[in-house]
Amino acid sequence: MGRFSQRTQRLPMYQQIYRAVAGAMLIVIACAIGVSWLADDDRRHRPAFSTFASIVEQSLPPASASAQAQRQAVEDWMARTRIVFALFSADGQPITRPDPRIPPPRHVQPGGNFDDWLASRFVWQLADGRVLVVRFSDNRAHQPWMYCVLLLAVALAVAASTFPIVRRITRRLEDLQRSVEALGEGNLQARVDIQGDDEVGRVARSFNRAAARIEALVRAQKTLLANASHEFRSPLARIQVAASLVGDEHNPAAAEIAQSVRELDDLVGEILLASRLEMADATHMPVFETVDLTALVAEECARTKAQLQADHIVMQGDPRLLRRLVRNLLENAWRHGGMSPVSVYLQTQPAQQFSLRVCDSGPGVPEAERTRVFEPFYRLAGSRERDGGVGLGLALVQTIARHHGGQVWCEGRATGGACFGFSGPCQAQPQQP
Q1: pTM surpassing 0.70?
Q2: Where's it found, cell-wise (predicted)?
């Protein structure tokens, strides 16, 4: 029962409701047929049948008479009453003409009588062992089947009229589910088309209100972050100018101030870019152009002297953002790989997909932290003091990848180190002749 319940719960809701209605209808039909069968038996008519059979028995010739005489007597009764009779000998042999509608009775007790379940035949055993079978109506045998057909027709009519209602209710729930999933995936403009004022309609209104408030809060937070980051640029520029005017380029303190200002400026730039991307994804679809990803990656690898193995990949995207993604991956590999050689692999994948893997030979990333390294400001233990950085580079890589309909990941290398990857859709390349 538990397994059946689990399998049923995995079905769509409209199928669950519809199966419940159909099951209830089948139970009602079965109960109706059973009640009809029990209520429509002829036990209350048996005394009259027995009296009628006794009268016929008294008028029949004895068993020692010829079969022709017995047959003629039965046919006379059939002509007078318009009821079908059949007379059988004690050993079950037909005395009257065989009638396929009246088969020989079975399991008749001496002096007893019974009706079959169709309530259309009555069997009476005569005192001399002969058996008289009376069929009271040709149409009567079809009545139970007609009753079953009628019930089935009613069930089909109920099922046909119920399905549109059930489907309408569950379709609205499916629309609500799709909107909830879209909101969870980051589409803050996801809303439900409200239909009706029932429980489903009220849930849809509540969802729309909650989604609108979430959108307003997130938009306000992103706007505040973008504006604040933009405002940081002016004082940073003034600090940088002042440090260059009053500081000595050979003074370690002045050099540290200049380096700190540059890091802050890079941080502000990454925050601004991430905020703009998130706001753009939440308000409108991005506008892309055709980008030769292989050429772009080759340029960045040449700048950082990374080793490249690449297939020819062309995709739709923003070249400025894609360059930033590749550059951040390369800088992350140089920074955390201990300045070891960096290997880059750009390969085509099935279903018009590609993968970009940037691998280093550094200490690697613990498996438990390979998803967290893409969170904003997340740093591995000791990496801040060892490698510098603020923990936004990989988070920006993930934002740019999602902006292009792709995904990022981190994995270990068998020879030591880590590989950071980016995969996404690309254009199909024409086959070479």
Answers
A1: no
A2: Cell membrane
Q: What angle do CA 258, 261, 264 make, to 5 degrees?
A: 155
Task: Please report the DSSP string for 384-402 in residue order.
Answer: HHHH---S-HHHHHHHHHH
CA distance 224 to 211: 20
Chain segment 135-163, per-residue pLDDT in tens? 765 444 445 566 677 777 777 777 777 77
CA distance 358 to 326: 9
Is the four-CA dihedral 370, 371, 372, 375 of positive or negative sign? positive
- CATH of region 186-285: 1.10.287.130
Closest CA to 324 of 346, 294, 300: 300
Helix (H) or strand (E) holding 260: helix 252-283
Q: What burial letters (b/e) apply to 140-169, b meaning 16+ CB within 10 Å?
A: ebeebeeeeeebeeebeeeeeeeeeebbeb
pLDDT tens for each residue of 283-325 = 555 678 999 999 999 999 999 899 999 999 999 998 988 999 9
Q: Would you tell me how many other CB atoms lie within 10 Å of the CB of residue 170?
A: 19
Please check whether residue 219 is in contact with residue 282, taking contact to mean a CB–CB distance below 8 angstroms: yes
**Cβ neighbours, 10 Å, residue 361:** 18
Phi, psi of 138 (to 5 degrees): -70, -35
Cβ neighbours for 102, distance < 8 A, ≥ 6 positions apart: 84, 86, 121, 133, 135
Q: Could you confirm whether domain 286-425 is CATH 3.30.565.10?
A: yes
Rounded to whole angstroms, the Cα distance separating 201 from 212 reads 16
Q: Which residue type sits at 423?
A: S
Amino acid at 252: P
Locate the DSSP E strands across 333-414.
343-349, 353-359, 407-412
The string of DSSP codes covering 97-120 is PP-TTSPPP-SPPTT-EEE-TTS-
The sign of the CA dihedral 98, 102, 107, 110 is: negative
Phi-psi region of 379 (alpha: psi -120 to 50; beta: other; left: phi over 0): beta
Cα dihedral 232→318→401→260 (10° resolution): -30
| Amino acid identity, position 245 | L
